[in-house]
Amino acid sequence: MFSSSTLLYPLSLFLSLSLLFLLSPHILLSSSRNNLLSTADELDDLSLFHRAALSSSNTRRLISLSHTPPPPPKIAFLFLTNSDLTFLPLWETFFQGHEHLYNAYIHADPSSTISPLLSSSSSINAKLIPSKKTARASPSLISAERRLIARAILDDPNNLYFALVSQHCVPLHSFPYIHNHLSNSHRSFVEILSDEPFLPNRYNARGFDALMPEIPYQDFRVGSQFFVLAKRHALIVIQERKLWRKFRLPCVDAESCYPEEHYFPTLLSLEDPQGCSPFTLTRVNWTGSVDGHPHTYGASEVSPQLIRMLRRSNSSLDYFFARKFSPESLQPLMEIADDVIFRD
Predict the structure, then answer these.
(1) Please, which residues have CB within 8 angstroms of residue 174's CB and are 6 or more apart in sequence?
(2) CA–CA separation, 298 vs 84, rounded Å?
(3) In angstroms, rounded to a whole number, what is the distance separating the alpha carbons of residues 198 and 205?
(4) What span is annotated as the signal peptide, if there is one (predicted)?
(5) CA distance linking residue 101 with residue 269, whole number of Å
(6) Gap between the Cα atoms of 161 and 179, Å rounded
(7) pLDDT digits (tens, 9 = 90+) for 95-128
């Protein structure tokens, strides 16, 4: 007869191998995502953030000594993309005539071919910033967004609002409508949610209590990836270090790991909840989402009624932007741009 100890070793080995087989995809995925953030890239980013914060401090000092009225605020549009900007013609129409009130910055994945946006045929004065590899549901997206913000702060001291958009975003209002509302609000617009049913899984995505002690569960927040930040909050984002050390950790639950949707809501909820409007200005339709991607509007769905529906929100402001739209929807969007989209 076999003793219990004789059976214990093969059983333990079997269970260990089974557990390794089940977890290995998550371990490998987390490892590959985390490896996107090299030490050299981190040091490069820290240097950039330091220069941007110092530049802003010097600018504030000069303004305080000046007796001339400050220039009008500019909006920095931060395009985060992994492909060409299909909707460039629509954005050109949106920006036309307002060159003194905006700047555009593009963080494109190194594998993309974004050069047409910067050609002489484009009326958008866009700047392609040095970019690094990014991956969906990865802390590399937080790095890219912080990098965009820092570059915009360094580039123009009059950038007072920072609007993050993607290659699939389209404007829902005219430029003057958006600029007037932002310059009169003096607030940031970042979705901050604390009562979602998936909150526990998101909190423990890196392991049980891995965010402790810096981020207790009651302080953890989630929200949309897309935001509009006032400059005072943009500076908080690029100077923050403590929370970043936690949110850059690799995840063991890849299905619940969306750092870019957690870091900004949590940070700003902790730093200045009263200074933020806790909703996003980018409309996304999650009905019938597939593999974590929202509904994509096709050409046949584009209509004046769709634009007016997408604008409506439960907050005091309409939505400013919407996503996702398919490349084929550009032509019908252009056909209603002047009479509907840019007529508020």
Answers:
(1) 94, 341, 342, 343, 344
(2) 18
(3) 11
(4) 1-30
(5) 29
(6) 9
(7) 999 999 999 999 887 766 665 445 545 678 788 8
- Whether the pLDDT of residue 82 is over 80: the answer is no
Please answer whether residues 211 and 134 qualify as being in contact, where contact means their C-beta atoms are separated by less than 8 angstroms.
no
Cα distance between residue 221 and residue 2, in whole Å: 54
The SS3 call for residue 75 is strand
Q: Which residues of 64-84 are buried (b: 16+ CB within 10 A; e: fewer)?
A: eeeeeeeeebbbbbbbbbbeb
Q: Is 153 helix (H, G, I), strand (E, B) or coil?
A: helix
CA distance 175 to 338: 12
Q: With bands split at pLDDT 50, 70 and 90, how would you rate the model's confidence at 59?
A: confident
- Size (the chain), residues: 344
Q: Which residues contact 312 (CB under 8 A, 6 or more apart)?
A: 318, 319
Q: Which two tokens stand for residue 95?
A: 């920006």
Residue 2 has pLDDT above 80, yes or no: no
Q: How far apart are CA 132 and CA 130, in angstroms?
A: 7
Q: What's the pLDDT tens digit per position in 252-292?
A: 998 999 999 999 999 999 999 999 999 999 999 988 777 77
Q: Residue 171 — φ and ψ, nearest 5°? A: -75, 150
Backbone angles phi, psi at 3, to 5 degrees: -80, 160
CATH class assigned to 38-63+70-282: alpha beta
Exposure string over 269-303, b if 16+ CB within 10 A, otherwise e: bbeeeeebbbbbbbbbeeeeeeeeebebbeeeebe
Distance of CA 196 to the CA centre of its chain: 19
Place of tokens 């920072």: 162
Distance between CA atoms of residues 161 and 304, nearest Å:
29
Mean pLDDT estimate for the chain: 86
- In 3-state terms, what secondary structure has residue 213? coil
Domain residue limits, the chain: 38-63+70-282
pLDDT band, residue 17 (cuts 50/70/90): very low
Burial class (CB in 10 A: 0-12, 13-18, 19+), 227: buried
